[in-house]
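On clarity, I found the account of how folds are encoded harder to follow than it need be. Since the whole study asks how a given chain folds, the encoding of that fold should be made plain. For the editor and my fellow referees, an illustration may be useful. An entry of this sort, consisting of the sequence and the corresponding backbone structure tokens, reads as follows:

:::
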Amino acid sequence: MKKTVITFVAFVFFTSTSFGQVQSGAFNLLLKSMIKETVPTVTVSDLAEEDVSRLVFLDAREKKEYEVSHIKEAKWIGYEDFNEARLNGISKSQEIVIYCSIGVRSEKIGEQLLAAGYSNVRNLYGSIFEWANQGNRVYGPDGKPTNKVHAYSKTWGVWLKEGEKVY
């Protein structure tokens, strides 16, 4: 009986939270355990229904990851060496979508943006991995589409199902 109750509680928790969804159930469970939702989230599917031309995409990965590929016209802001000065020219009311590899680093930078007065910040749930997994284009340093995606590490790269993994 106790095992049944625990299973039921886990099922309710993982299916009733306000978190988004990604295509892989296992990836979704991992994200739900790691993302605290301290920054509002948006899914790749949700963005497909929006006019993304009005959004500013911010890449909160390290420079070497960004240089492999990024979402079109995304502005690199970094993580370890993040500096708010990199947001020069971006209004505090601008609609911002921030991403990293899976959404953990971008959530932490998103918290800093909210604390600095940016009022319309959303964290991309599943981040660039899910973006690529759902068949969306990424762009190389030359501004041209590429199949390459920085997979962060071999451990984390298992969640990147589409594209050529670069480490």
Q: What stands out?
A: The two ends are 46 Å apart (CA to CA). The first strand starts at residue 41 and ends at 42. Residues 4-18 have pLDDT under 50 and may be disordered. Residues 2 and 8 are 10 Å apart (CA to CA).
